[in-house]
Specification:
about 425 residues, alpha+beta, Phosphorylase Kinase, domain 1, Transferase(Phosphotransferase), domain 1, five-stranded antiparallel β-sheet, 10 helices, nucleotide-binding, transferase, CDK11/PITSLRE_STKc, CDK, Ser/Thr_kinase_AS
Length: about 425
Amino acid sequence: MSAEPGPSTPSKKRSKWDQDDDNMGQPQIHPQKRRHKSKPSRTTPQNDDTGPTPTREPAPIPAPPNPRTRSYYVPERAFHPAIQSSRSVYCYERLNQIEEGSYGVVFRARDKESGDIVALKKLKLEEEKNGFPITALREVHALMSCRHENVVRIREVVVGDTLTQVFVVMDFIEHDLKTLLTTMPAPFKISEIKTLMLQLLSAVDHCHQNWILHRDLKTSNLLMNNRGTIKVADFGLARRFGDPVGLGGLTQLVVTLWYRAPEILMGATKYSTAVDLWSVGCIFAELLLKEPLFQAKNEMELLSMIFRLLGPPTNNSWPGYASLPLAKSIALPSPQPNQFRNKFPHLSMNGLDLLMSLLTYDPEQRISAEEALEHPYFKEPPLPKHPDLFASFPSAAMGEKRRKPDSPSAPTRAANYKLLIEFD
């Protein structure tokens, strides 16, 4: 729409804020007062040999210095893009559907202007009754806050014809790690696993440094391109962990079941970055085994699997276990040593130490992403392989037929949801 008003349309009155923006960086020019025409004199002018007297122009009024309207520590307004309305989804050509998750449907599309191939995530808003969902706002905010080479990049948000058609435009990545593990002919080598783990830990550490909890790390949410680079995606359950928490505490309906930390299973309403590191440990084990570590059907079965691998928790391994909401309702098995060496017989001592540091009962003792990046496991041979040396694979997201890998969905709040303590 043109910025100039039509002949029959009154011009829009501009605010002082707009006028200040236009004048910023330009000298202020004060308009001269309009001079009224003087009536012609009735006296006849006298002839003068010197010719007509030249008209003297008034001297220009010097402009006063422009007052500073911002702090010295705030960048110039020209550095920030102007706020514009969202583009239409019809700027993109839909190619094929990639997958459908709990919070959206992902399509592959082409930008009609630039020709770039992108991923369009359509948010599920049809059943929303309380306005725009907080999960979608958190996802967009988290993606904009966590700009990193191993985090999927958000490009823009586009809209359709109705209020329920909102799409998040992101970079298109050829594979997801879950599908790749089920279709690749041979498992990843140790050097390749180290590279993938370093990239994952770097992305998780960057999110935590920016006060973002992902809360749904799993192999299907790790995208991988044909250049050996993985990118963390699907921030639908992410949130800031530095914000004040309501009276009910943090929700327990986070993290896909197979990757859920034991403190959440035990009913904890206060948790932090350690829940993401437990998921990283499960992903590490899945890369080594080429299958998920805890393939449980429900929360009770998952707890029994964890007790069998780590041994039952004790006052030394988990000092705060007795204070958890579900501690009194679950009978612990008899004490037994952990089974890590039997489960991972070919893993080195440093690799086993890293895995056990990630899969630790006590969240306070669990290793952080920053500490894990400096672990000796990544400095011993075989050293991490350069991403450019990774093999390339046919992309399943390009529309090819494939078998969907068996994996549970991310948790969603349901009307009949019950905690473990509520079952008979």
